[in-house]
Amino acid sequence: MKMIPAPEGFGRVNSVAELRVAQLLAQANLGVLTACLYSLRLPEHEYKRMSEMDFVIVWDDTVLVVEVKGGRVSRREGLWTFTDRYGKTHEKREGPFEQASSAMFALERRLLNRLPHLDVAFGFLVLTPDQELDPDMEWAPQQHGGPRTMSVRGVEQALRRARNFAHERLGHPVRGGARSELLSVLRPDFDRVPNLAARAAGLEREYVRLAERQYDLLLGAESNDRIVCTGGAGSGKTLLAVETARRAAASGRNVVLTCRSPHLAGVLRDSVVGTGVVCGALSELRGTAPGDVLVVDEAQDLMDVDAVLRLDVLVQGGWTAGSWRVFCDPNNQANVDGSFDKQTFDELAAGAVSISLPYNCRNTSPIVLQTQLITGADVGVARAGAGPAVDYKRYRDDDEEAGLLDAQLTELRQQDVDLADVAVVTLRDRTEESSALRTKAFRAGRLKNVVDPGKGRSGVARLVTTPQIKGLEVAHVCIVDVDGIADPVRAARLYVAMTRPRISLWLAVSETAWRQIEQGGERTKP
Q: How far is residue 26's CA from residue 311's CA, in Å, rounded to a whole number?
């Protein structure tokens, strides 16, 4: 049976019972096309009921929820007691059959909302690998499997019984033919990965649904030795770099994850804690033993001969014969931090599978539109949905700009936004040169010049430069010191800053810069 993800990609599994069942399901052959979605490896789901589903089996005509309860299971006076392998007991009012049933109905409602013409049977099966349960009014025999089920043949028989029972209870034939359509909806839900803010900075507990093209990249990373992935800001390159590194490490390989920026490297390092991945900025990895897999994020910053030679020794077999994944933004971000030699990049890409990410999964539609209009950069098709309009303010001097920024930070606080979710990005070379230092917020300590933009403190916004925030993201961004956008460096800095926010974007633009925007041709006035 096809497993999604494959068993070798499960990572650490704390439940021995679920691992046993997963291994049996992977070997099962039901005689027809089926797929099994395994959700335990994901830390959290958007939908509570989905987090309670251990496995979901998909046929052309059936969706079956499988709940696994290892250890000792008992029920007394309506209270269920579960005892794990360490002897620790847990008591719940909701038993495994009620849990599986409610999860099944929740999933059915969700699928019918997404696929109104769906005509399949829904059912559930509870497996207790360590204990037989006596027959009970709460469940039918076809909805339970005990220790005698724990063989490939036993699991196959239990699945067939549960599937047939689901159709019998339905009482009429179904149209079926929905396996591919079901997987197109279920697969992204069961293969979500937390965004960097959720993993590292802890700003928001929100999750990114991978676009189909991004999901294909993850599958390709498991089957191709060398991959070059290109995409604009917000296309999920850093998120995917982390996830490919985690998956490769979970399969038992030694992985090296690197980039140019020490600030970004710190966030990446937090994202792979406990996985065994060796992570650091390239400048920090001198003397590091070569890994089985090399993952390079923000690779456009490291596309010169010297950097490429230093990366070559970080992977077994080097660039020519090694296993590596390179993530790169073609939109000239290298003008901000690092150097980009197109010939070097082309030579590298010639020996790899190339994948492009066409969607922007970070920025809202207004942010994507304004970034394209002002910078001319292709940041992909917005998938994050609608959001507040981009807000522009014009200033004559630094004092006026500081007053405008104070007013915006006050407005955000009045809207119950924690300033820890706000980054103030200066386009000047150093934060010490920014007009933001003249604000009341800075003097009051509500805005601070921080070294690590990935870590904030409640009630305090962060003042950063574009190199410091490059490759990262934050909920709300205020861009200041837009003194001009005519030269390539300033234009690249503006591009980086405009593509950092997930929710709102505010810009303070000088009169000079605004005239340059108006003279740039097709622009949208605020």
A: 37
Same domain for 432 and 474: yes
- Strand order in 89-92's β-sheet? 72-76, 79-83, 89-92
Q: Which of 451, 472, 240 lies closest to 336 in space, CA to CA?
A: 472
End-to-end CA, the chain: 55
75 token code pair = 């029920």
Both tokens assigned to 200: 């590292």
Looking at the structure, do residues 110 and 201 belong to the same domain, yes or no?
A: no
Which string of DSSP letters, residue by residue, matches 59-115? -SSEEEEEEE--SEEEEETTEEEEE-TTS-EEEESS-HHHHHHHHHHHHHHHHHHH-
Task: Give the pLDDT score at 232.
Answer: 78
pLDDT digits (tens, 9 = 90+) for 72-113: 777 776 677 776 655 667 777 678 888 888 888 888 888 888
Same domain, 334 and 370: no
Range of the domain at 314: 193-360
Same domain, 339 and 205: yes
**In terms of C-beta density within 10 A (0-12 exposed, 13-18 middle, 19 or more buried), how is residue 25 classed?**
buried
Given a contact cutoff of 8 angstroms between Cβ atoms, the answer to whether 289 and 326 are in contact is no
Q: Please indicate, yes or no, whether residues 142 and 261 belong to a single structural domain of this protein.
A: no
pTM over the 0.85 mark: no
Token pair of 35 as six digits: 């797929």
**Residue 70 located in a structural domain:** yes
Instruction: Please state the domain count of the chain.
Output: 3
H-state helical runs in 337-487: 342-349, 365-375, 398-414, 440-444, 466-469
Residue-wise pLDDT for 481-511, tens only, equals 999 888 878 888 898 899 888 888 999 999 9
Domain boundary among 301, 335, 360: 360
127, part of any domain: yes
Q: What CATH number is given to the structural domain containing 289?
A: 3.40.50.300
Cα 496 to Cα 60, 152, 360, 432, 507: the distances in Å are 46, 53, 14, 20, 13
Does residue 526 lie in a domain region?
Answer: no
What is the three-class DSSP state of 475?
strand
Residue among 338, 378, 363, 383 at smallest CA distance from 477: 363
